[in-house]
Design brief:
The structure is a single chain. This protein is an alpha/beta fold. Helices cover 34% and strands 18% of the residues. A ten-stranded mixed β-sheet has the order 3-4-5-6-9-10-11-12-13-14, covered by helices on one side. It has a two-stranded parallel sheet with strand order 1-2. A two-stranded antiparallel sheet has the order 7-8. The radius of gyration is 21 Å and the shape is elongated. The protein binds S-adenosyl-L-homocysteine (SAH). S-adenosyl-L-homocysteine binds next to strand 10 and strand 12. The site of S-adenosyl-L-homocysteine (SAH) has 18 residues, from strand 10 and strand 12.
């Protein structure tokens, strides 16, 4: 089991190993006159065995453990709540070292096992149909907190030594916390740790164009999903406010230039809102916008929530929209919403906490109290 990090007060002067990539841990060992290979031992304990307690790292000598304990800590998010959906989805509320909370979700059998991970506490993007957006941004997560969610969920679900997928589709906008997100992916990719292949990671973004351009140059590139949601500039700006700064046209241009591996495609996510963006014309425009791109479309019928002014279209409308795309030879899937009964589905993640108590946040608290 992963144990809680030491008391915040004790760890003040200590280096947090959970925030370091392997070469950084090696450098920290060498700087203290220790052998670099201890870094690999530590990485194996923390990531592969889910052991964050330095005392329990039994292939390190006792004197070394004592020394390491003095100088280092391994912060690990603490599970402070867990809910199980009737469909097997598990939502974890995790408490961070500063007492803030985030949510991470385990979705079994999709057909693989998937962890849906947060990159920020709250979100600054304020998409009109998303509950997390109502919270506003509280703060970025550190790289260790992003990777820590995977450590905790893999430990809790018994998947530390099994393959799983990661989707950066929890709370927050990953490209709005670029450096920490990419550092977390490098930490998770480490072969002495969990060795997660970038092919098993999907980064979902509203489309912050400079972030996409940077992502295009990354050696460790995850699969890309773009939250499109509309087919005209005006409508997208209304639903996804960052569109004002990074318009649809510029976003699609960046997508066209995005380097894709053989056989890989960009996923375009499209939340269907009844009577708003789900007409036959919308579907035809979407097909035209994406024509000629290596794209697939993932339709997400809205997961409704109190405080969200939109509603979910009927299955017939969803089916009609999908059929129009399929008739135009597009690959299209309809996302089966998982964990809706425990508010773990897309756009339903929200937790109390944070200093900024906006009206939206206060309302969100009330909503949460209502369901729990
Ligand atoms: N900020 C990133 C990742 C988080 S959201 C992004 O926007 O892509 C993951 C997906 O869930 C996004 O496509 C988002 O638009 C969608 N989503 C948000 N609220 C939703 C809701 N109420 N119902 C269905 N999907 C929603």
């Amino acid at each position: 089991m992963i144990s809680r990090a030491s008391e915040a007060s004790q760890s003040k002067s200590r280096v947090d190993l959970a925030e370091l990539e392997l070469p950084e841990v090696e450098a920290a060992m060498v700087a203290r006159g220790e052998q670099a290979f201890h870094a690999r031992q530590i990485y194996r304990w923390v990531y592969r065995r889910g052991q964050a307690d330095i005392d329990q790292m039994t292939d390190l000598s006792r004197p070394l453990r004592a020394r390491l304990k003095d100088e280092f800590t391994v912060s690990t998010p603490k599970v402070s709540g867990e809910q199980l959906s009737t469909d097997g989805t598990r939502k974890f509320v995790l408490e961070l070292a500063d007492g803030r909370h985030i949510e991470s979700v385990f979705i079994p059998d999709t057909p693989s096992m998937t962890f849906c991970v947060s990159t920020q506490v709250g979100c600054a993007m304020s998409c009109g149909f998303c509950l997390t957006g109502k919270m506003g941004l509280v703060r970025n997560l550190t790289a260790g907190e992003i990777a820590g969610q995977v450590r905790v969920l893999a430990g809790a679900t018994g998947l530390l030594d099994k393959p799983f997928n990661i989707v950066l589709m929890g709370m927050g906008e990953p490209l709005h916390n670029y450096d920490n997100t990419m550092k977390a992916l490098r930490m998770l990719h480490e072969e002495h740790g969990l060795a997660v292949s970038p092919l098993r990671v999907t980064l979902s973004t509203v489309g912050i164009v400079p972030g996409l351009e940077r992502l295009a140059t990354e050696p460790l590139m995850p699969n890309l999903a773009i939250s499109l949601h509309a087919t005209t500039e005006d409508q997208r700006t209304a639903l996804v406010p960052p569109n004002r700064k990074y318009p649809l046209a510029a976003l699609l241009e960046a997508c066209r230039k995005f380097p894709l591996k053989k056989r890989s495609r960009i996923t375009f996510e499209y939340v269907l809102l009844d009577g708003v963006n789900d007409s036959a014309d919308d579907a035809r425009r979407l097909a035209t916008l994406l024509a000629g791109m290596k794209a697939k479309v993932n339709l997400i019928p809205l997961n409704p929530a109190p405080g969200i002014e939109f509603s979910r279209p009927s299955d017939e409308r969803v089916e009609r929209f999908a059929q129009i795309l399929a008739d135009r030879h597009m690959t299209v899937s309809v996302r089966k919403s998982r964990g809706r009964d425990i508010r773990a589905a897309c756009g339903q993640l929200i937790v109390e906490g944070g200093t900024k108590k906006s009206a939206g946040q206060q309302m969100a608290r009330l909503i949460e109290l209502d369901v729990r």
